[in-house]
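B., you asked whether I could sanity-check this one before it goes into the benchmark set. Here's the sequence:
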Amino acid sequence: MRISIILPTYNEAGNIAKLIKAIHTQPGLKSYQLEFIVIDDNSPDDTAAEVKKLTKKISVKLFVRKNVRGLATAILHGLKKSTGKIIVLMDADFNHQPKDVFRLLQPILNQKADLAIGSRYIPGGGMHVTEANKLQFLLSKYGNYFVNRLLLNLPIHESLSGFVAFKRKILNDLDTNHIFRGYGEYCIRLLYKIHQQGYKISEVSVNYGKRQYGQSKSQLFLMAIDYFKTALKLKLQLLNAKQN
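And here's what the prediction gave me:
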């Protein structure tokens, strides 16, 4: 079975090759045909050059976007270029750890779920909390509770991790152009829409790793506002649909 692993990148020259090699050598994944798809937004740090070095030994497809930027649209580009029956979305900075990829796939491979998401907020999950990221952790934890349980009534504890695996077939029932836009809020739209379609969602405990190289591109407060607006818009759409 072929599994497509989609990796959007921007200035990840110090991480991307190490990450792909680490995933490729995971014992549980050796019996599967892995297809790595890197969508790079024309990184000035030669991320693309690092990826090209791998293509002779590992199945890696590289696409460099010179006139377009953005996390969600990069993922959409990767989806359109992918051929796997199962698709994995993850960060390229070791936030999502290679050792967790096979665990994330288990509910799907065992036919217990159509989509699995890595969660920090179920037993066994977590992240290394320091004074520097403590605010981020608290905003994420309670923001997830507010969005998932109070607004959207999703049967999960985390909808923002972006560490997701799913069966390709679910894309047939989704408006991917609508879902994959903006930044990380695409993950809320993805989970909400497939839940509405009746697909099964499973959570897998994960522990966030440390970025090994470079700096995060995330802008915490702007992201929080965008996530809230996205969830509120979905809630209003649901209420309007019920009234009509």
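One thing to flag: The domain at 2-243 is CATH 3.90.550.10 (Spore Coat Polysaccharide Biosynthesis Protein SpsA; Chain A). Otherwise nothing jumped out at me.
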